[in-house]
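Consider what follows.

. . .
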Amino acid sequence: MSQKYDVVVIGAGPGGYVAAIRAAQLGLKTACIEKYVGKDGKSALGGTCLNVGCIPSKALLDSSWKYHEAKDGFKIHGIDVKGISMDVPAMIDRKDKIVKQFTGGVSTLFKANGVTSIEGHGKLLAGKKVEVTAPDGTTSIIDAENVILASGSVPIEIPPAPLTDDTIVDSTGALEFTSVPKKLGVIGAGVIGLELGSVWRRLGSEVVVFEALDTFLGLADEQIAKEAMKTFTKQGLQVRLGARVTGTEIKRKQVVVSFSDSEGEQQLTFDKLIVAVGRRPYTENLLASDCGIDLDERGMVFVDDYCATSVPGVYAVGDMVRGPMLAHKSSEEGVMVAERIAGHKAAMNYDLVPSVIYTHPEIAWVGKNEKQLKAEGVEFNVGVFPFAANGRAVAGNDAGGMVKMIADAKTDRVLGVHVIGPSAAELVQQGAIAMEFGTSAEDLGMMVFSHPTLSEALHEAALAVNGHAIHVANRKKR
């Protein structure tokens, strides 16, 4: 006799495990199926984010930044440190321990909330039945009143650069280098490429980033992107725009990369090559042919504004549906779906999903940028405040970048907040909160901000929108 659940979730990444926990909290009998196996050969919850994405990459970013600071940044503070070296295996071991801590944490949360965790591969059959293939190959059937598909995504592979064991790698392989490559190539100047390129550049690699597009960070505000390019170039990241990789060849444990740009056909040789050209939905063997779920040409599941598919009682969240492939977007979709299954009228504001690039400086934004608003015919005012005029940033010797706020010219309502600089990922959340509640730039300008703090840059940017900034010369209003 098959098992019966109110909710069955396929996938235990940020969308799936959060959906499962919230569903269980709402009194629904819930099971979550996950097939991922960690480095230690054991089943691991948390999906890409916790195992080979958000969390481990931040561990390496922080470790590499501390090394960079000790090597190049301490002297200005009067700290003279000699004989600095980097133990890469120790750095990787620290990363692995953090991953294990958080994946184990999800398991603990499942137990605490009464979620049944099932090891194996889940496949949606007709009639909201789910086939589970266990690690030993045996199969079983689960009946569900509701199914949430949350299988996530995988790195895109490209024909000119087929992956190898350890020379041409994807984002997962780039987290496992045992030594610092002397020369490192990165295909793709997006979030993943810039973050991983930054890690190994700080540790001493010569890094070249190939970007096929002629624009840099096309989704970011143009002023922010321009500042980022200037900063990364100064840090030693060689970003080649309009450079399309046409082929690769392994020679003597190195990789020769052929590419074309405005100067014609060229070649460069690297010790390692990271392919970071984006991700695609992971739907292999997920859907039976008669289950009724449709995919688009990119392999994404069609859903409505509430993540419901064309099959009643079947939902899909996260990287396998429209929108940015972001862990926090996935999690909030998971919460929304769980609450709607439980009868609540939950909804999600897709206009206010923050984006963050965890380089140094960090880059973050939420809402609309100038280019988007111009295309929509919206009149707006802009306020910009540089961290170079912020006391806390200067005191911390981390004063590059700026906070930029965009507000409606007629209503003064904040339409977008864009940050490049220290703690951008944290500061942009203040902008998201303000926008969620329809705050005006004047409202933020009238608030009292602690001094000295980095958040004062947001305050001054709000004041600058209407020409009232105190600690920087005001630009003439549009």
Q: What stands out?
A: The chain is about 30% helix and 25% strand. The chain has a mean pLDDT of 97.
